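step: validate -> pass
step: tokenize input -> pass
step: predict -> running
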Amino acid sequence: MKRFDPLKGTTLLDLSAPLGEGLPGTWPGHQPFAHRVWRDFPASSVYKTHFLVMDEHCGTHFDAPPHFIPPDGSGLPLAGPLGARGADQVDPARLCGPAAVVDLRDLSGRGEPGVSPWITADRLQAWEAEHGPFQAGDIVLLATGWSGHYRPGPAGHAYLQGPVAERSSPGWPAPDLGAIRLLAERGVTTVGTDTPSMGAAHDGAPVHQEALGRGMLFIEGLCGLAALPPVGAYFLFLPLKLVDGTGSPGRAVALLPETS
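step: predict -> pass
step: emit ->
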């Protein structure tokens, strides 16, 4: 039987954020990322291993519906059956598809301290006017350039700590409800961003409630989206299969046809 090589004739780009204790990948006030030695050689063992302690929404990760949608029977607002569909129940095929990359880098830095500038439906429609309508099965990627702030130490302050914890620096560009509804109308069910959250720095709940309540998925904390063309790449994100997870970290890549 002939071997199957899906990477033949393509270039693979890594779109994932590295994880480390000195990097700004954890939401302020959540469980800090920890990666420590459990066994080391030669003193205690013939092998070496570390243990991990981390939030489900650390670094490059996806949001499953239970992140903002309570389960049936909870008596809470917005409760429904989607609230019981954890990360382990999400079909990984929904996290893979043709990439539709919207360049929004001009919006970065335009927000007030602690406030995100909006990505509106008009911006998405302008992309459609040039590249054609978004289609069901597309993975729409919002390329804001914000991952340039994902750096170790004080240099990474503007990524998350400044906008959210201190309200001392601009928030990242974030889609408003109109933008999410437009994508839903087009049949798009998965949206990615190179910012810490799809929600605005100043009020992240409404967009999550709107999208996850429709069964949409978010992929957040991506890196290097500016390297992708508006169309022509194929995107893949594979999370951990966490039972009852509200989301999960994972590895994001894109495949680009090699040019001769």
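step: describe -> The chain has a mean pLDDT of 97.
step: cleanup -> pass
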